[in-house]
Amino acid sequence: MTNQGPADDRVDSTDDLDRAFGPDTASIATASTGQRLRRGTVITLSFVAAGVVIAVVLSTIVGSIQTGVGGVFPRPQAALDRFRTAATEIAGVRGVRDEETTHESLAAYRVSAVVDAAPGLSHGQQVDITRALSAAAADADGNGVVVSAEVRFDTMVIGVTTDAEVTRQRLEVARSVAGIGGVVAVRCDWATDAPSDDAAAQRIEVVTAATDVALAAITDVAQRATHDVFPDAGVSARQPS
Asked: Going by DSSP bridges, is the β-strand pair 108-117/202-208 parallel, antiparallel, or unpaired?
């Protein structure tokens, strides 16, 4: 007959301290090499999985900001598409081309396009087109996207922004300058990198073959016509290309 003590006085054969010093010094059972390897592998895989999840989430967030999600983040291509669709439906517009997107910051874009108008339009038709293009830009503008365009009427190039009144004024200034003898083409838009409706930020570029005294006279008249509408706007002249 074998005598056995209380159950908690028994020696745990799987514990190093228990084997060496008795049950009162029992510790956690020593893991085998295989168990340690398996635990290490599980921990490593857990960290790797967590890292992958974090990377995917961050990539999704950044990608959403760059390409646009719903109505929250900028959607530059969608803005261009809306503007193009609206512009091509305007009477007197032949096409929209040379679309451009400028990424200014993480959540800010500028988009622009060139609008070709039919030749020989009347003054009233030109006014109607600029007004409609300005409205189309305003409809496509927003959520971190600024929309602008330039419309080409025969020998005039007019900058179009969401401000219909300033856009109309650009047209009127260009028409006045285009009527000066010796002027073969006119551009009226903004001198800044980004579209601006500030009077001082506007510019007129006169294309003329005149030189010397004739050029000075043309420039002087163009400046007076421009500054009547846009005080302090820049006026320059160049030879035809």
From this structure: unpaired
